[in-house]
């Protein structure tokens, strides 16, 4: 934020994780919403987005007067998370894809936990803040790899990519 914005907006960094989380949920909505186009039920897109717009309006009307831009960030996160959840449910009923819910949510929840931990660690030791945040970023794929998240075929593919990348 300090590189890209005027100093009046430096505090915006506090809500960037909320907005980023909202757009992660937007990405989930985009993926699961593909079903509506494939099944030619695009009216469902309109219904879901209209519901999300109404929710966003209500949340902003309630949160922004009380919390300002932080309330708007929470409204964004909540709206997109609800849109993604509703689209996921409706899409599965429209065409059973069988998305692996735990495999989608596990890295998101783990990343959120690592983010909170790294942020707390960086506040406790400001001189080492960058190192602590970097460690948090690097731990995510390590924990997923060691923790049984990846199946054998996925691990083999990653090793293949790694070998190919090293040899070129």
Number of helices: 7
Taking all Cα atoms into account, the compactness measure Rg is 20 Å
The global form is: flat
> Beta-strand level of the residues, as a percent range?
under 5%
What about the largest sheet?
A: none
Kindly state the mean pLDDT as a whole number? 91
How many strand segments? Answer: 0
Low-confidence residue ranges: none
Q: Which class do the helix and strand fractions yield?
A: mainly alpha
Pattern of helices and strands? HHHHHHH
Intertermini distance: 36 Å
Considering DSSP H and I runs of 4 or more, what fraction of the residues is helical?
over 70%
State the main characteristics.
about 0% strand, flat, mainly alpha, about 170 residues
Describe what you observe in this structure.
- The protein has 168 residues and is mostly helical.
- 78% of the residues lie in helices and 0% in strands.
- It contains seven helices and no strands.
- It has helices at 16-32, 34-38, 43-67, 69-94, 101-124, 129-146, 152-167.
- Helix 3 runs antiparallel to helix 4.
- The longest helix has 26 residues, at 69-94.
- It is flat.
- The two termini are 36 Å apart.
- The mean pLDDT is 91.
Q: What's this model, at a glance?
A:
The chain is mostly helical and 168 residues long. It has helices at residues 16-32, 34-38, 43-67, 69-94, 101-124, 129-146, 152-167.
Topology:
Layout (H helix, E strand, L loop, with lengths): L15 H17 L1 H5 L4 H25 L1 H26 L6 H24 L4 H18 L5 H16 L1
Helix pairs in contact: 1-4, 3-4, 5-6
């Amino acid at each position: 934020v300090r590189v890209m914005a005027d100093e009046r907006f430096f505090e915006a960094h506090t809500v960037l994780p909320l907005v980023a989380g909202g757009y992660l949920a937007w990405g989930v909505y985009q993926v699961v919403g593909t079903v509506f186009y494939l099944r030619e039920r695009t009216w469902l897109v309109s219904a879901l987005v209209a519901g999300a717009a109404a929710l966003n309006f209500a949340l902003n009307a309630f949160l922004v007067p009380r919390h300002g831009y932080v309330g708007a960030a929470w409204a964004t996160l909540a709206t997109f998370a609800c849109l993604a959840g509703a689209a996921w449910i409706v899409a599965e009923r429209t065409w059973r894809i069988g998305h692996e819910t735990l495999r989608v949510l596990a890295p998101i929840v783990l990343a959120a936990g690592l983010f909170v931990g790294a942020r707390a660690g960086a506040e406790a030791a400001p001189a080492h803040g960058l190192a602590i945040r970097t460690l948090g970023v690097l731990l995510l794929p390590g924990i997923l790899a060691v923790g049984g998240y990846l199946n054998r075929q996925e691990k083999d593919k990653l090793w293949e990519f790694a070998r190919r990348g090293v040899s070129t």
